[in-house]
Write a structure and sequence with these properties.
CATH architecture: Orthogonal Bundle
CATH topology: 434 Repressor (Amino-terminal Domain)
Order of helices and strands: HHHHHH
Radius of gyration: 16 Å
Length: 89
């Protein structure tokens, strides 16, 4: 079974769909960081060096397995020439 078919079946489950949608903001943030880093032509190691951390911390951030502080995200954004925008809707 292909991933798209498997995901379609999973999304039929209301509990799964809710959890999937709850993770969307985190997914979008990680995606934006990875895209911006690559656009800048930076490696994970270079980004880590610029903010004073280890490459493994950037790898965890980009994998979505790390719950970073706002302070850490601000450092990442600054190193990438970006800014953080937070909103409540």
């Amino acid at each position: 079974m292909r991933w798209s078919e498997f995901k379609k079946d999973l999304m039929k489950n209301p509990a799964f769909r809710q959890e999937y949608e709850n993770l969307e903001p985190e997914y979008q943030l990680v995606k934006a960081i990875v895209e911006r880093r690559k656009l800048k032509g930076m490696t994970q190691a270079e980004l880590a060096r610029r903010i004073g951390t280890r490459q493994s911390a950037i790898a965890r951030l980009e994998s979505g397995t790390y719950n970073p502080s706002l302070r850490f995200l601000k450092k990442v954004a600054k190193a990438l020439g970006a800014k953080i925008e937070i909103s409540l809707k």
